[in-house]
Amino acid sequence: MSQITLTFPDGNQKQVDAGITALEVAEGISKSLSKKAISAQVNGQHWDLQWPITQDAQIAINTMSDDAPALELIRHDLAHIMARAVQEIWPDVKVTIGPVRDNGWFYDFDRAEPFTPEDLAVIEKKMRDIINAREPVKTELWSREDAIKYYEDRGEPFKVELVNRIPEGEDLRMYWHGDWQDLCRGPHLVHTGQVPADAFKLTHVAGAYWLGDSTRPMLQRIYGVAFKSKKDLSAWTTMMEEAAKRDHRRLGREMDLYHMQEEAPGQVFWHPNGWTIYTTLQDYMRRKQRADGYVEVNTPQVVNRKLWEASGHWENYQENMFIVEVDEDHAREKTVNALKPMNCPCHVQVFNVGLKSYRDLPLRMAEFGSCNRYEPSGALHGIMRVRGFTQDDAHIFCTEDQIETETAKFISFLAGIYSDLGFDNWTIKLSTRPEKRIGSEESWDRVEAALGNACNHAGYEYEIQEGEGAFYGPKLEFTLTDAIGREWQCGTLQVDPNLPERLDASYIGQDGERHRPVMLHRAVLGSFERFIGMLIENFAGKLPLWLAPRQVVVASIVSDADDYVREVTEALKARGIRAEADTRNEKINYKVREHSLGKVPYIFAIGMKEVEDRTVSVRKLGENRTEIVALDDVLATLASEAMAPDLR
Description:
Layout: E1 3-7, E2 13-17, E3 20-21, H1 22-29, H2 31-36, E4 39-42, E5 45-47, E6 52-53, E7 57-62, H3 67-89, E8 94-95, E9 100-101, E10 104-110, H4 117-132, E11 137-142, H5 144-153, H6 157-165, E12 172-177, E13 180-183, E14 200-209, E15 218-226, H7 230-246, H8 248-254, E16 258-259, E17 269-270, H9 272-291, E18 295-296, E19 302-304, H10 305-311, H11 313-317, E20 323-326, E21 335-339, H12 344-352, E22 363-372, E23 388-398, H13 403-420, E24 426-431, H14 441-458, E25 463-465, E26 475-481, E27 487-496, H15 498-502, E28 507-508, E29 514-515, E30 518-527, H16 528-538, E31 552-556, H17 562-574, E32 579-582, H18 588-597, E33 602-606, H19 608-613, E34 615-620, E35 626-630, H20 631-641
Helix pairs in contact: 3-4, 5-6, 8-16, 13-14
């Protein structure tokens, strides 16, 4: 038998017979390792312990202490174990696919009756029985003919279709968890008992079209989550409970910020309180951009298809665009326009008006651009995922030599804004050249190095995302971590030499010749709608005073204090504080509860004692105690606290 060379993580090498399995390799190292082994890394690929190794390879044995492969296997095995449990309970159910996702997995089933919450508990119990049986997991390669016959004999039409969709020449791998079988690429664990029986939970059921096609059958999708330990599951459950309390949709109602309705799917009806947050944030961003050397423009909402064809969006993005057809006077055919899904082609049009010199670069052009993109109704989510939104969008026109300086400047600009908004924990990811790309290797080398150097010069580390850049250039992604540990990808900086080329943008260089500028697409917040939703959830509705739509409510305890209530309210307003008077004939405890639910930062309670002493009884949101403060003192304190960070 031929020999192959295995190279281990410590650099040691070993000659072994070709066809050896990773489990046999582990057994050759030590008995204890073979018992702990769950999978291997073979030439960087996640490798089942049962698969043969037929050529020279770098190899490492994975155990449960290796988080990424362990979680992948636990979740993947649980998808199979859940499908087996469902078919053992309801033998008539047809199975489809069950991939790993996020913190768990899902599996789609074809069943006449809908699954209920009670069914999920029954399935969970059966899954634990299967886990506790510690049944072996086995795998084989099958011929296409054998696989099709197997599934046809068992009345599994979805599996037959999946087999037929696998390209000719690819292996068809079958896995058994005990005596239950599924078509799967693997890898999987050695036996069902390696799955932690107390660290998973089935969460909910949803509808899903077969293969995501709305013309195909509607299936039932059961979702589950899984972790390495009961402690990790408990931590996730706690985070989900906290997330539910912070849900911007619920807080949006309680704070009377906005609403949405079926006549305008994916569009936001901002109420006065919500619009106050929006405009306050926009005013802040406008001041920050002006101070950083941006010019602000405004471009049309509806643009003829000719521009979208020239930019390439008509060919590549049309399914996400809202098309507007207009019968022009005396026209023989309709004029086809589109609501703009992004601002960049229009910004190039502004750049192209008049002759630009190298002295005009870099030109930082910003717009609070209202955009519209078609999102499937099932993907819409409050104000986090909408069809109509406004970006804090800007484009920097520069030379290639200016990319590094402009990127470092932008990172510092973004860092200051995130800090002001309460986000000090964020990361940078650098997406590098994809397999299919334009431009020379030398150009990619220079631009990728420029982005990396810019991060270093700005004082921030970054993570490489190999091959995740656009076909025309690399990009940076900025990901925030909120108060309960969730990550949100918000800011971006994308290097783009392509659009200036397509839309014939140019400037006159020092040599008197025309040159193409590079375009840096950049955003800090992303969209106002989504970012406001994030702010609401990050602060659980208790926004910093400068962003709170209602900063102070002055509430009367007795009607005889109403005049002083109104006087205090007007004094607050004169200091630029958003204040309201509440002189309703209601008990003060009722008023406090109502305004606390609405997340008003300060409530002033006014009775006759306060009137006589010209004081206010101050109650801060989230605190049970009250403090008596002289009116003049509280006016000075709040006037300072209520100022936006850039104005202090």
